[in-house]
Specification:
This protein is mainly α. It has 5 helices and 2 strands, in the order αβαααβα. It has a domain at about 35-115. The longest helix has 26 residues, at about 90-115.
Length: about 120
């Protein structure tokens, strides 16, 4: 449970980082970033697998590059569902989702290292 909480806080911080370094994304507060991390996670867990399955032929034709569009759609959808997160457009959502994915990978590695450290 602590691992999940740590990951959630780090992903919310990553959203604030993205809003700070990229003007196409605006996050109003840390609370809004926490909610945005939950909504993005829920969309990625529930909606994204369905979209991947439905767009499988396009994804295969583009050699997997269409998955970036799906990630951007999840980010853009989260921005439309929440008041505290706004995205300038779909292009901004694409770039922000790429940065968010990279941050997520780094967070996963760091959290895994943190919680699987050998106590000896």
């Amino acid at each position: 449970m602590l691992r999940l909480l740590t990951r959630w806080l780090c992903l919310a911080t990553a959203l604030l980082f993205i809003a700070h370094v990229y003007s196409g994304v605006t996050v109003t507060s840390f609370g809004a970033a926490l909610w945005a991390a939950v909504v993005i996670g829920a969309l990625n867990t529930i909606v994204r697998p369905l979209l991947v399955l439905l767009t499988l032929p396009v994804t295969l034709l583009t050699l997997g590059l269409f998955l970036f569009v799906i990630n951007a759609a999840m980010f853009y959808s989260a921005a439309h569902l929440l008041d505290g997160l706004s995205v300038a457009g779909f292009g901004a959502a694409l770039l922000a989702s790429l940065i968010y994915s990279l941050c997520g990978m780094l967070i996963d590695v760091a959290v895994t290292q943190l919680f699987t450290r050998d106590p000896t």
